[in-house]
Structures are given as structure tokens and as C-alpha cells.
Recover the amino acids of this structure.
């Protein structure tokens, strides 16, 4: 889904919409106006940096799935977060 909001263009995949509405995913991750700013492009030259938190019974499984995903590189774990 492509949408405009306050001068920003967002491109949101259909499967992400539910997670955004529920507050589990930040819609700014899909703000192509912001992501394409020169300073953001320079900062993300080596990849997109994310902080991911896990809760509940499925936390261990979800954490393992992220670590096992394709070319995902986990550079450090924040023990205070999980």
C-alpha cells in the first residue's frame, strides 16, 4: 500500500499493516521520504539498523527465527531489553 501523510510517502507491505495498527511495528520503517534523505542513506550504507524486542511465551522462538533469517546479522544483544 502506498500512501502520503504530511508530505511523506509511505510504502507499507500488506502483511505489515496489521502489525503497525496493533503498535508492534513502527510505520516510520516504511517512510521512503525519510529513508531516502542523504544522511539516512549514508547511515544505512552497511545495512538497516533495528532494535527488536521480544515478549511473552514465543519470545525465544521469535528471537531464534530472526537470528536464523537469511542475511540477518546480529551485532549485539541488549540484555536490558530482553
Amino acid at each position: 500500500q502506498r500512501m502520503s501523510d504530511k508530505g511523506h510517502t509511505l510504502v507499507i507491505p500488506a502483511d505489515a499493516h496489521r502489525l503497525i495498527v496493533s503498535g508492534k511495528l513502527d510505520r516510520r520503517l516504511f517512510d521512503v521520504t525519510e529513508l531516502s534523505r542523504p544522511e539516512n542513506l549514508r547511515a544505512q550504507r552497511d545495512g538497516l539498523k533495528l532494535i527488536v524486542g521480544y515478549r511473552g511465551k514465543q519470545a525465544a522462538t521469535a528471537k531464534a527465527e530472526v537470528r536464523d533469517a537469511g542475511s540477518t546479522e546480529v551485532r549485539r544483544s541488549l540484555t536490558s531489553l530482553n
About this structure: The CA atoms of residues 1 and 14 lie 7 Å apart. The chain has two domains: 2-47, 50-82.
